[in-house]
Amino acid sequence: MAEANWYVVHTYSGYENKVKANIEKTIENRNLQEEILEVRVPMQDVMEMKNGVRKTVQKKMFPGYVLINMVMNDDTWYVVRNTRGVTGFVGPGSKPVPLTEAEMKPLGIKVDNITIDFNEGDTIVVVAGAWKNTVGVVQRIDFGKQAVTINVDMFGRDTPVEISFAEVRKFN
């Protein structure tokens, strides 16, 4: 069997979640679980100011696009391409181009697993990035994203910040 790769599908704007649901329903109906492995609409947490109140909301990283981990063949291409709301695969002509490892890494997909020596409630120090030298207590560990959430003091308030495993160390 061929290897599964991540492909990008272009959709009508605002239809990303509908396309995801339609493809997942088709996978179930046609028994394609072995060929179309995962459908994702990449989301990110964004801080928003509304009526003077800070709020963390989830926004689509790439409006109008859906990521699909699948084995490319005529059947899977046809199923995805003919899903309502899909305008086509990203790539030249009708030939879809899979994402490279480098393109997938910032999305939190297929990253090298980093082992950690701390748990929720432990104190850690940030050793790289924008929050370098910040000390915080681990609130949540997300192994899928390979990131931890710590609270940092911003303007006198605890604010949750997500930081990559690679940028933190256990505080001694």
Summarize the structure.
The chain has 172 residues and is α+β, with helices and mostly antiparallel strands. The chain contains three helices and eleven strands; from the N terminus they run E-H-E-E-E-E-H-E-H-E-E-E-E-E.
Question: What are its keywords?
Answer:
single chain; 172 residues; alpha+beta; Alpha-Beta Plaits; SH3 type barrels; 2 domains; four-stranded antiparallel sheet; 11 strands
Describe the structure.
There is one protein chain. This protein has a 5-stranded antiparallel β-sheet, with no helix packed on it. The chain is an alpha+beta fold and 172 residues long. 20% of the residues are buried. It has helices at residues 16-30, 74-81, 101-104, and strands at 5-11, 36-40, 43-50, 53-60, 65-70, 86-89, 123-126, 135-142, 147-154, 157-164, 168-170. The protein contains 3 helices and 11 strands, in the order βαββββαβαβββββ. The mean pLDDT is 85. It has 2 domains: 5-107, 2-Layer Sandwich (Alpha-Beta Plaits), CATH 3.30.70.940; 123-170, SH3 type barrels, CATH 2.30.30.
- Annotated CATH homologous superfamily of the largest domain: NusG, N-terminal domain
If you compute it from the alpha carbons, what radius of gyration comes out, rounded to the nearest whole angstrom? 19 Å
Annotation field: number of helices: 3
Order of helices and strands: EHEEEEHEHEEEEE
